[in-house]
Amino acid sequence: MDAAFTAEQDEIRRTLRELLARHSGPDDVRSAVGTRDGYDAELWRRLARDLGLPGLALPQEYGGVGCGPAELAVVCEEAGRALLPSPLLATAVLAAPLIVALGTDEQRTALLPGVAAGELTATLAVPGGSLATALGLTGDLTGGSWAGGGRAGGVQARPSGDGGGWRLYGEADQVLDGHSAGLLLVAAHTGGFPRSRTLLFLVRTDGPRTPAGLVRTRRTALDETRPLARIQLRDAEAELLGADDTVDASAALAAAGRTAAAALAAEAVGAAASALERTVAHVGEREQFGRAIGSFQAVKHRLADLYVRVQAARSAAYYAAWDPEAGGLALAQALEALRVTTAEAVQLHGGIGFTWEHEAHLYFKRAAADELLLGPVHRLRDHAAQRAGLFGPGQGAPERGTAERGRAEQGPAERVAV
């Protein structure tokens, strides 16, 4: 495997970095998150028109660029550096690959060209409040319990009985860009216990009126650059994604989750690297006792440790871009590096780093919100270890109650001896 970036990938990075440096500084970010959509719509159209970001990893026959996960990781890293508020993550990383994987030819032809052109934004709405679980990053998707599991809660789907349509009922609490996306991909449970399965459904919201039975409410988010919404479905009309309602969508969600984890890891690395660069610049200028605080050995040691963390996370993210199977572990390392780096950035900035106006708090909030939405780190690592078979039979921690059952199986003399 050649891990070096191509000239085309380097050009994508350079062009995007220059554009975001001009149009997505800290003040621009604060202005963008205060808009109705939560991002700069004009900048998004420019990114779609000039760079083709929404369709970067889409097939060319549907208007995409035809690139792969490596190019998407490069773009996400630069977006993370600028904390770019945009539909890129929800549309290009989460929703579009699922349409490609499960959609019929008619659905792909109808939806993907609009996505690639930046005219149609989309997002994935999953019940349970855990995107990481729904993408198979922190748990097993078998059984669909995270989507309702045939019980109350989650989102339930039933045939409408009018020629192949479906009706959805339930809610999803933390949907990225759910208040503004023109297309919702809703994961819903159907079939009850006898034929239990999880399917994906399309709910169009880009028409002249809101579909009946759909209520979208933007929520107050810890990280304003990651707008979240509550989606309530009250017997809302929907279209099945794909042609067969007997095929569970869990496998496609897990495959999309591995690719998304690699892109998200790259984004977290970009944010961590930017926070570290800003901190290094600050300690080189701020003086204490007549000298720059960056000249003190203790500060140098802390910055050196952060540099090693960020570089290790970057290596893991780049490897995951070439091998998505490593996406979960790469995401865990990147989220941990981002959390530690941003916390140290706030400390090393001193009192100013705690103020609302300083950009350091934007990066710190991104770190905290990402781990709440996509982690936690220890669960990402645990699930990756389980999938790799690191803990075979008898090698893990004993099941709760094992000691008690063992004592119950002993004879009286044995119990006294113990």
UniProtKB/TrEMBL annotation:
It comes from the Bacteria. Keywords: FAD, Flavoprotein, Oxidoreductase. Pfam families: Acyl-CoA_dh_1, Acyl-CoA_dh_N. Residues 6-119 form the Acyl-CoA dehydrogenase/oxidase N-terminal domain. SUPFAM superfamilies: Acyl-CoA dehydrogenase C-terminal domain-like, Acyl-CoA dehydrogenase NM domain-like. InterPro entries: AcylCo_DH-like_C, AcylCo_DH/oxidase_C, AcylCoA_DH/ox_N, AcylCoA_DH/ox_N_sf, AcylCoA_DH/oxidase_NM_dom_sf. Residues 262-387 form the Acyl-CoA dehydrogenase/oxidase C-terminal domain. Its cofactor is FAD. Residues 388-418 are annotated as: Disordered. Belongs to the acyl-CoA dehydrogenase family. This is Acyl-CoA/acyl-ACP dehydrogenase. The lineage of its organism: Bacteria, Bacillati, Actinomycetota, Actinomycetes, Kitasatosporales.
